[in-house]
């Protein structure tokens, strides 16, 4: 029962950590580290929750989760005891395997749907978008409202509308394009995919909703940081304010230049930048993230 108890404690600890992290402000000073910590919490919570259920179910084998599952396949008599399986353990086994299947299947389904949506949108862009000498390498669509987004992938594209060209000054446009280029370069779509998939799997969970919103904001802030290395932060802030009142929703599978609910937090951050986290604190947070992500799979090998 030791493995089950430790994994259950780790799962609860991840839930508490997630609640604290949704309200944390230090992540705005180091969005990349905040994203990494969120990823570590997600991995640890999923594997710890599944592991706790399976460790309890497989406790009669006394071999932990990993080797216990192997033993169950080769010795289905449940540790040599030829009697009906304990209802609680059987329930835990079914729940653990079901949750494992869901957490594997949902991201795969979400990825397939996203890839199909992007392929359809690229086909559409091939018909309606054009090149513009003023913005080389960018696809321009004839649309009066402000729109700017990227379609990530092996054939990534940055797309803006005629409305964006009319709305933004040259400096603001450069800032927005730098922001979109950061999304493409750092593959932020892959960062967001598992959180969106988890939201689909657990649509009733307020904590999952808050976690997804937090990661989405950190991803935008991370792109802002890359963009302001190439352009004036004030230009990006003014572009965000313009987009906050004029932008339209982006297509499925794309990443937009701004989200209305996060605009003011990002503008405040750009206009009043805070000092970076001290190197020692950054190192501790990175080490904690790596240790947390590795802890759950390691505990799967802990003897029952």
From TrEMBL:
| Entry's transmembrane regions | 33-57, 87-112, 283-302
The note on the cofactor says:
Binds 1 zinc ion per subunit.
Alphabetical keyword list: Hydrolase, Membrane, Metal-binding, Metalloprotease, Protease, Signal, Transmembrane, Transmembrane helix, Zinc
Q: Please give a single GO biological process term from the UniProt record.
A: proteolysis
Q: Please list the cofactors this protein needs.
A: Zn(2+)
Molecular functions (GO terms): metal ion binding; metalloendopeptidase activity
Q: Which residues form the signal peptide?
A: 1-17
Query: Peptidase M48 domain: which residues?
Result: 117-193
Domain of life per record: Bacteria
Tell me its family.
Belongs to the peptidase M48 family.
Known PANTHER family for this protein? POSSIBLE SENSOR-TRANSDUCER PROTEIN BLAR, SLR0241 PROTEIN
Q: What is this protein called?
A: Peptidase M48 Ste24p
